[in-house]
Write a structure and sequence with these properties.
206 residues; Hypothetical Protein Pfu-838710-001; two-stranded antiparallel ribbon; 10 strands
Length: 206
Amino acid sequence: MSEIEPRYEFRIFGRCLGLAEQRLRAMASCESISESREIYLLGCEQVYDRNVKIRHGKLELKRLIERHESLERWRPDSQWAFPIARDSIRDTLWPDDLPEQAPALPAMLSKNDLLQFIAQFAVPSYRANVYKRRFRFTLPACRAELDQLLINGAALETLAVESEDPQAVLAVQSLLRIEDCENQSYPLALSRILGITPLPREEDYG
């Protein structure tokens, strides 16, 4: 894939982001709307430095490379079209080593091969089916998007601001009045939703 400059990102999730959405739409017009169905592959608890998903018939990987104040800097790392050589994704899904069952996998994996392996064996990976309707906005020196999501059928929203310039993201974050919200990447949010990772203040529940 062509080289893409890493971007600083700030993302929030919520059941309804009405006030933040109103402020965003007052700042810029929606430029485009798109829909997609994606499959996120999540690692074990507290592994949030890799964003791995299947989209448009390809396996995509982004890596977290830096934190700056409340922001995370992500770099698109790799993209593979199916079928994928088994050994080429060793460090992507199973960074320590492939599980003992891995030799049973074919040398070239189809999408179904990979998903069936994750579903059937005790590997440190989990699956989340995500439908997205994305509304994109362009602001001075940065981009923003509001996504309406169905995560394994459950409705949620997310709003993100991103740019190669961290100060541009921080400025828009302040204008949207979301600077006190927690920055949650997709891997972190999905891990919490699926119960892989404890919620903040989980001791308050039960």
